């Protein structure tokens, strides 16, 4: 039985669950079934993106689930090629049409794409989308402090949330500190650090911590995220892994155990060298 998921309050007053379900590569009817299964398991935050090409699967899962719509927190993301103001608004409308939903609980800009340099325009469109009722909360993803400072300065609207690459190999202490100072929720993508040749899940010290708590290494790492104040969104297609990932709120890591996990972090240990200062996503 998954433990109860706490809620975190964003700077606009809306709440977001402390863990979510990542849906990248969960597509089609099979993906819809996996997402619906996740909702039935207890997930209430579902993360998607226009570029994942699975907003329809998310909508189908919501439709097929017995959980009321107002208890779910559905998120999608604006792609880089649609940063123009009018383009962005139409894309958000298309996202709604794909899902069959009346609104998104959260919509975020997927990457800043600083070379293209239209992310301020995209943020202005997000503000308008919220005014129109398309979305309830607006945020960003992969924005560095310099990008965040600029959109705040030019629009006076602070994002509710920034979804960033965050895992034991790359703990992003300075980025998280900036978020805390500006009351921005940190959300973690690739929270388990998969994609490298090594795996923190196989480390003896992590396994010892897991054994001490009667948990799995995966649960230890996800608990590390929540105790940092971040919202992890691990992808999980099987019921077994979905339940495992959610069962992390009935124990607490010690300060020493937190330090053991944070010690894996090295400067700029991004998994795929996607530096938001340079990377362009379309």
Automatic annotation (TrEMBL):
<protein>
    <submittedName>
        <fullName>Aldo/keto reductase</fullName>
    </submittedName>
</protein>
<dbReference type="Pfam" id="PF00248">
    <property type="entry name" value="Aldo_ket_red"/>
</dbReference>
<dbReference type="InterPro" id="IPR020471">
    <property type="entry name" value="AKR"/>
</dbReference>
<dbReference type="InterPro" id="IPR018170">
    <property type="entry name" value="Aldo/ket_reductase_CS"/>
</dbReference>
<keyword id="KW-0521">NADP</keyword>
<comment type="similarity">
    <text>Belongs to the aldo/keto reductase family.</text>
</comment>
<dbReference type="InterPro" id="IPR023210">
    <property type="entry name" value="NADP_OxRdtase_dom"/>
</dbReference>
<keyword id="KW-0560">Oxidoreductase</keyword>
<dbReference type="InterPro" id="IPR036812">
    <property type="entry name" value="NAD(P)_OxRdtase_dom_sf"/>
</dbReference>
<feature type="domain" description="NADP-dependent oxidoreductase">
    <location>
        <begin position="19"/>
        <end position="264"/>
    </location>
</feature>
């Amino acid at each position: 039985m998954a433990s109860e998921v706490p809620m975190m309050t964003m700077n606009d007053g809306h709440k977001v669950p402390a863990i979510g379900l990542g849906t990248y590569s969960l597509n089609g009817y099979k993906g819809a079934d996996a997402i619906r299964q996740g909702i039935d398991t207890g997930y209430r935050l579902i993360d998607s993106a226009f570029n994942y090409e699975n907003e329809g699967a998310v909508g189908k899962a919501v439709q097929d689930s017995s959980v009321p719509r107002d208890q779910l927190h559905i998120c999608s993301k604006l792609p880089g090629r649609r940063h123009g103001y009018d383009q962005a608004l139409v894309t958000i409308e298309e996202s709604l049409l794909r899902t069959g939903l009346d609104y998104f609980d959260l919509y975020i800009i997927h990457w800043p794409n600083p070379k293209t340099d239209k992310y301020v325009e995209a943020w202005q469109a997000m503000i308008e989308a919220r005014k129109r009722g398309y979305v309830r909360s607006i945020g960003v993803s992969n924005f560095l402090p310099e990008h965040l400072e600029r959109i705040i300065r030019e629009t006076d609207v602070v994002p509710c949330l920034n979804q960033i690459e965050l895992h034991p190999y790359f703990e992003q202490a300075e980025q998280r500190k900036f978020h805390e100072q500006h009351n921005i929720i940190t959300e973690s993508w690739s929270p388990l650090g998969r994609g490298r040749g090594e795996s923190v899940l196989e480390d003896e010290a992590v396994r010892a911590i897991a054994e001490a708590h009667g948990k799995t290494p995966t649960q230890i790492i996800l608990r590390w995220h929540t105790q940092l104040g971040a919202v992890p969104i691990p992808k999980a297609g099987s019921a077994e892994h979905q339940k495992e990932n959610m069962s992390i709120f009935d124990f607490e890591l010690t300060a020493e155990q937190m330090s053991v996990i944070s010690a894996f972090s090295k400067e700029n240990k991004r998994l795929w060298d996607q530096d938001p200062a340079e990377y362009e996503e379309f």
